[in-house]
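User: Second chain of the day. Same drill as before.
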Amino acid sequence: MLSRGDFGEAYKSDVRKSAYRFMLVALAAKLAVCDSAINKDELRSFPEIFKNHLGRDIAYSKMMMQAAVDPAPIDHFISRIKAFYPNNNKLYKAIILQMISFAAVDGVINSKEMMFLRDVTYKFDIADSFFMRALRIYIVPEGKTAFNILAVEKNVSRDVLKRMYYKNVQEYHPDRLAIFAVSDPIMEMANERMQILNKAYKAICHYRKFK
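Assistant: Same format as last time:
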């Protein structure tokens, strides 16, 4: 569970906790059905991905199935969360990160899921730049060269290469995600992204004969 120190007054009321859990389940359910029905992988992965936000021994599968057919729009659930935790950007960003991780359970984030996630980010009043940085953690640059990954030219100078490398490291380093109390799958993806960046940097250094 997220600590009382992290989110202050949010944990004073058991009723509020239960309501928050349902709002979170509802958002995940709406995401799951935005392109198809909820599948077994999503039902199985939900408690693990959102474990830092949820209690134990709760029938989340049943809650998700019920929430999936709830006619209320996502605005309703997001506005309730914002009412429970006003101006808590740290929490909102953590939710967005978990939602992206949930969308990626089947190995791909499709266009409908992308639109849904972007809408959630907008309704939480979080900058689109945060969403795009978070999303890129889940986009494995298959088929891209080291130069594409670090966004540099083949004749890149040593100074420019270092600058672009450190810029990417600052954006995707796992330590930056740790403050949002994200789950293990997200941290694993961030670590994988760091490995990709490190390999790209070493490959370019070798190509350019930088020492």
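The domain at 1-139 is CATH 1.10.3680 (TerB-like).

User: Great, on to the next one.
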